[in-house]
Amino acid sequence: MFLDWIAQLGLLQHDSQCNILASLPLSSQRLIIGEVTKNMMNVDLRSPAHIKWYMEVLGQGFNLPLEDMNITSDDVDMYSNWLFKQRPQVIIPTLEQDFYKTIFHHFSLLFQPRLYKNTSPLVQRHVDLCKKVLKTLLAAGRTLTLSPETWTVLLKVTLGITDYLLKEPTIEGSVADELCDDLVETLFELWTRSNIMQVEMWNILKTCFHRWTHRSKVIHHWNTICLSLTRYIHQLTFLKKGTPFILKFSKDTQQQELDLPSEFVHYAWHRFTYLIPNPLLLSPHNFTITMLGISNCVDALIRPNQDTSTVPTSSLEYPDGNTLLHMFGNVLFDVCASGSYSQEKGFSESFAVLIRIFSTPQKRVPFLPCYIERFYAVLVVGLKTDTCLPTIIMTSTQLFATNLMGIRMLVSDYVIGLRRILPKLKFEYKGPIYIDNLRLAAIRVLGTIMCVPNYINYEETWYASEIEQSSMDHASLVGEQEQLTTELIRVLYNDEKGDSVVSLKFYILETLVMSLRTETSSYNSRYILHLINVHVIEDASFCPGLVGTVIKLIQEKILSMQLPADVTLVAFDVLMHFVEAYEFLKRDSKNVSRELVLGLCRYIDLLIYNSNLTQIYPLVVQAYECMMTWILVSRWIMDDHDCYKAVISTLSKGITLLDKEPPVKKVTTPTTPTTTTSKQFFQLSPRTKSQDTPPSPTTPNSTSTVSTVSKRTREKIAVQMAAEYCMSQFINHFGRFARLQNESDAKQKYFLVDERIILAITDDTTHTPAIEMTVRDCTGKYGWRIHTNYYDATISKTNINTSKSPPYLNLNILSQHDDDGMFITVPTTVPYNETDLPTLDSLGWEYNAVKQLMRQELHLSNKSITSTKQEPIRSRLDDKGAFRLLLSQLGFLLPSNLDRIKLISEEDAKTGLDALDQLSDLFHSLSRRDCISVSIYYARNGGNMKWPDLINTEALTEPFLQFIHCVGWPVDIMQHKRFKGKLDSTLCDKFIYYSNKSVELVFNIPYLLKDPNKQRITAADDHLCIIWMEDMENYKELIKEIKGYSDKTMVYIFVHPLENTGDSLYWVRILVPPFGSTTSAILASQRLHENAMIFGPLVDGMIISKHILGSMIRSTAVSAHQACRIVTGTFTRPHVVRRDHIKHMAQNYTVTSSLSSFYMDMFQQ
Q1: Would you tell me the crossing angle of helices 546-559 and 504-518 to the nearest 10 degrees?
Q2: Three-point CA angle 272, 275, 278, nearest 5°
Q3: Which end of the chain, N or C, is surrounded by fewer C-beta atoms within 10 Å?
Q4: How far apart are CA 996 and CA 1016, in angstroms?
Q5: 827 preceded by a cis bond (ω within 30 of 0)
Q6: Beta-bridge partner residues of 994
Q7: Which among 907, 899, 928, 919 has a CA at the least distance from the CA of 816?
Q8: Which helix (H) or strand (E) holds 731?
Q9: Separation CA 192–CA 627 (nearest Å)
Q10: Distance (Å, whole) CA 197 – CA 268
Q11: Beta strands 1024-1029; 1051-1057: pairing state
Q12: What pLDDT, on a 0 to 100 scale, did the predictor assign at position 879?
């Protein structure tokens, strides 16, 4: 006696000896069943025949109408009690399984449909009772010991009930709809627990399941069971873990652990996976759910998200891509190729699954050509479809870094697709992807393909019309400046043959340029600037005029004052990086440097006129640095009088900024500090009392007023300090200097001038009077050799110096690269504060006395020197008094100027220098450039790589050796006199070194050390690590290994040579792991992790070419090292350190004496 539908399915057959009350009227059945149920607890069951008769009566109770649900409920309780608590004693073990089967049969009658009204409260009572029975059946499968035959009956009963209700059309609020979740959960769990492997039963389940797929709840539960089995299969097959099978259908259901045999798990996984019919036959909503379920199963195999903490990452294995495509490929390819994209999410997910599969590295067997061909075919179609394009772009950020054969043939197709998103969406998109994230993904994909066209010749012309059409559509989105720039770039990239298609590189750069205008996200804008930086350096040698064109574009962007502050800082970085391409710029665009410097002068002037420097002073400082970088790149400014006048005027405004302090406004409330930009390039030192603004008159709010003045003055000090430093650089740029060879051998006299300059003066015995002078300031160290000669005024002008200098004074300046003397004509200009400067006539008797003395000396010299003698006549001054003559002519020995110069006693100065030398703070040993050390390692892969393997020199390859020689050059450590890091002759003979005007780089490479184990000493303070990876498998595991030996490392740059590119393209990954050994280190790492765009030009995930690999890695290393020091609070410019040491010398080693004592010291020397 059971539900008739079960028999119609052919699962069970009715027994004619059962159902004895069926012929009675309903009223009689109700009476008999009610009385039996009421007195059942008092019945003495003495034989199996008794229990069988009573169960026939109780079983009929499950078929009563809704009005008799009380009787039915008592019957359910009675059966539950017999199953789990008080089983009748007459049920002997041989009859136990038949007893279970009978109960299961009778339970099915409860699910027979009843006539009811939707508003009847009895409907919910019926639904609750059905759920109770399903829980009872599930508990029986969990707790009772069932024979295989009983399991089969239980499964057939459950399957029949489920199919009987779920095959009907979906009606909201119906019994079937209310019971759908419980029915499918019960069926799937019982089916899994039964370990059944009968093909017939699985075929019946598949047939029935197809009739339920119109219900979305059924598809959800199918996704759950498939995902659970897939994860368990991954554990058994690849992790070799014997943990129980975990099954949890929803948040409301309790998690179940099933101990299943491995053989059954594999079989059940296969059968459950293929229960679903062709997804294209499902309703749109259910199709989407199905594709999401397949996506989750694929992700569980290639990117398992279960807890694998007990398994080393290096030992994790995944199925081959061909295996996944054997399982899901036909469905995925058919869906993608169907062309019916009515359900956006489902079809998009199909493309996403395929891209994730093909983006997974294949370690054993490469993808079959047939699969690659089908993948490329559907991908080309998807890139032209608005509904699928966003998802394709979001999942393609690593596709071009794979070793797929022929993947770079799709570059042109991707460019067409990307130009539908950048610079602005050309279609209406209402999907779940945030637009800024979509644009970021498109920018990242551009970063992986922009260097490819230089190494693959795209001669096809089919894409030209489509891209040109997109260019016309984008013309209305950009301004006039961008349109002019893109047209100029088009001309630069145009093929020399004339009428052929414009290079694909042009369209990539055009997309970046136009996107820079339309982008609203600050993060994305900085990303675009970094890509433009790399693209221009990449193409500088191939495209004449490109560097100058892009510099003008970025310059206009900055001068427009419309960029956010953080984007402007990156723009300045990009302009400074373009200095590397100056040789191309000088050849193609001679006036770009001049226009850029003049533009920056105007920009700085506008910012300084802004009374509020709180938020903009980092921009002023960075603009000063950018301006000086382009000035110091060569000596082009020497002959440009207008330009250097503008530079001097702009620098003077910064220097005199504190002299124009506006009246202090009364502030009634304390001001809140304003958050400045994250990248500050000049660290403010603690202010001394002399720097503080005098306190205003005492008022109730005087504290707030002083605080406001202090904050305002701090920004001005930063700008003034930057301007003074740049002015020193600018002035020194007009000459070339060298350090004197005999500086340390001769006896020197030390003077401190204006607490800014240290003069070390040595008498030169080869000339009389003559001196050698070393000048140290915050910009560096410079050497001078000065001697005084007298010439006959009648000598031909061709034989004497025609400099504007006085005829009796000749200054020979030593070259930095050679020892040849050279005469310098110092340019003059009108300073910014000329009106405040005193005139010579106002200087008084001092100037008149000097002028009269000069006339007398000139008269005597002309009178005593005959025209026949062309050799200079030496002075009869004492050989040791030349320094007094120099100081006197410079005006430092006048009484009014004695407060500007102080004598440093020989004993104290020598002791001070020695002490500072021991502390590595000695002034003359401090470099005027940033000194950086970076570690470089070679690794095959990240799996099981330990420290001894990482420093092993036997596995090095030729491309790696070429790489370390392209980031710097080898130097002999015995002959090298500059920055060495922690290296010395006991550790190595040679090392890799690089330097320019602003930085010195030492690369700590263990393979160049005599003992590679010493790497942990030499690299202990390195903030950045570069790792050459032959195989990117588990590359993140190396971070933990290196971190154990170099705790201060915060940035890791991985360089991976791509296969099938002829050693021409390299994939760069940049990671900033947010962890550390201390709380402060963790906070600093997290801050840098969140603001990774502050350093560049390389960004995570880019693919770059070989010919710019060394320069880009080097530039990124310098920028990242600076960012690490900023977030750790240890960043200070070298000139600030040198300035502080000068002040330290002034405070501790100068001689304070009276006027008479000073003159006595001078003339007793």
Answers
A1: 10
A2: 140
A3: C
A4: 27
A5: no
A6: 1001
A7: 928
A8: helix 702-732
A9: 73
A10: 8
A11: parallel
A12: 47
Give the pLDDT confidence of 1092-1132 residue by residue, as tens digits. Answer: 899 999 999 999 999 999 999 999 999 999 999 999 888 88
Type and span of the H or E element at 617: helix 617-631
Distance between CA atoms of 115 and 112, rounded to whole angstroms? Answer: 10
Q: How far apart are CA 898 and CA 911, in angstroms?
A: 25
Q: What is the dihedral of CA 1070, 1076, 1080, 1084, to 10 degrees?
A: 10
What amino acid occupies position 1109?
L
| pLDDT for residue 767 | 57
DSSP one-letter code for 1129: T
Beta-carbon neighbour count of residue 388 at 10 Å?
A: 25
What is the SS3 assignment for 93?
helix
End-to-end CA distance of the chain: 127
DSSP state of 674: P
- pLDDT, residue 477, reads 59
55: Cβ–Cβ under 8 A, 6 or more apart, which residues? 102, 103, 106
Q: Which residue has the tokens 């609070």?
A: 1129
| CA 321 to each of CA 119, 709, 894: distance values in angstroms, whole numbers, following the listed order | 55, 66, 87
Q: Which candidate, 460, 446, 357, 484, places its Cα nearest to that of 409?
A: 460
User: What does the alpha-carbon distance between residue 1121 and residue 926 come to, in Å, rounded to a whole number?
Assistant: 19
CB 304 within 8 A of CB 360: no
Distance from C-alpha of 98 to C-alpha of 93, rounded to nearest angstrom: 10
SS3 content of the chain, % helix, strand, coil (to 5): 55, 10, 35
Long-range contacts of 480-487 (CB under 8 A, 24+ apart): 481/553, 481/556, 482/513, 482/514, 482/517, 482/553, 485/513, 485/549, 485/550, 485/552, 485/553, 486/510, 486/513, 486/514
DSSP label at residue 994: E
Tokens linked to 319:
């199925």
**For residues 1019 and 987, is the Cβ–Cβ distance under 8 A?**
no
pLDDT of residue 476: 58
Q: How far is CA 36 from the centre of its chain?
A: 76
d(CA 999, CA 932): 7
Per the CB < 8 A criterion, the answer to whether 531 and 554 are in contact is no
pLDDT of 156 reads: 96
Q: Please give the Cα distance from 190 to 160 (Å, whole number).
A: 13
Cβ burial, residue 369 (10 Å; 0-12/13-18/19+): exposed
Residue at 743: amino acid letter: E
Q: At what angle do helices 321-337 and 369-382 cross, to 10 degrees?
A: 40
